[in-house]
Amino acid sequence: MIYLDFNATTPVDPEVLEVMIPLFSQNFGNASSAQHAFGMAALEKIEIARGQVADLVGARAASIIFTSGSTEAINLGIRGALPTGFRGKKRILVGSTEHKAVLESAYLGAEENGLVVEEIPVLQDGIINLEALTEMISDDVALVAVMHVNNETGVINPIKLVSELAHKYGALFFSDLTQSVGKIKVDIEELGVDLGACSSHKIYGPKGVGALFGDKRIIKNLLPLIVGGGHESGLRSGTQNVPGIVGFGAAAQLVKNCLSKYQFRMLGIKNHFFDEVRRQIPGVWDNGSYDRVNNTINLWFKGADANAVMTAMPNVCVSSGSACQSAVPAPSHVLIAMGIDRTAASESIRFSFGNTTTDEEVDQAILELVRAVGYVRAINGVALHLENEIEVNVRAQSA
Questions:
Q1: Structural domain contains residue 265
Q2: Count of domains observed in the chain
Q3: Phi and psi based region of residue 191 (left: phi greater than 0; alpha: psi -120 to 50; beta: remaining)
Q4: Portion of the chain with pLDDT greater than 90, in percent
Q5: Annotated catalytic residue 198
Q6: What does the alpha-carbon distance between residue 272 and residue 277 come to, in Å, rounded to a whole number?
Q7: I want to staple 294 with a disulfide (CB 3.0 to 4.6 A). Which of 65, 249, 266, 355 is the partner?
């Protein structure tokens, strides 16, 4: 099996697993049991991890609130902030290509607090439309939510400029940092992020743990979603997942120390993959700006349904970027928001590479992809030839 879906999840790094294992059966204390040595040892390890995660995102350790993952952190950040200190505010502005966790939290939070949500459009390359945001924002906006890096296309939003606009009008700025942390440098103070979220399993840590962080003055006034014990500064009650949190901290430290090496390797892999795919497959478009993280690329294969292509190459694990709601497949809302039609969106595939991706795997994946796209086009009666697709490749280069 060739795994090229690292934006969905990553394997736990062996170094991370090594620090986690003893916490399951040897040092298994409950961090809330501070009356004895086992509990105190667990609490100490959690606080070390809190510092490690804070160091990765440029936050203060006291502002790190551990959750079950980015989805919970996003809900706590958005829905927990809206009931506090927004008198006279009427609107929430949220990027149209946000993860569903952000979109649905915004709409639910708006309903809970008598606000309305307006979606900020993106440009054709997937980057947030700053001109549109400038026209939309005013003093009645409570919160602006724009992600740092898109999970489907990998494009990087200019969130520092977004945060400056939000703050100019007295709005809170929330950013989903799940796909940027560990891939590019993140410093929330420098970026002007009031509240941010990330998840352990995207950075070679364990699943089931994430974090909300930001301005401590804002954090302490959030309305908790889970109550009944006062854990995590009263904002997230429940026995802390000590092995998960410690693994999260270890992963945070690891990816920060290896960031430059990671970026260089991912750029080489992505460029080689894209160059070879364009050379060997006609009718390929690059969905998104070249201003993206180095491990991600989203491609449209004209005339080849994405699900059919993936079925035709069962040994290669990739993502179509499609959402399934009520068991009815739907094209990616991200690609639709970028102005890509439904047919093209349903023929698009995301490839995301990671630390364990080898050159041999990439080359084998290319061979499988060439065969699968050709097969799907053939059974659909679609004939494209490289010599007739100059325009396609020019567009791909300039997208």
A1: yes
A2: 2
A3: alpha
A4: 83
A5: no
A6: 8
A7: 266
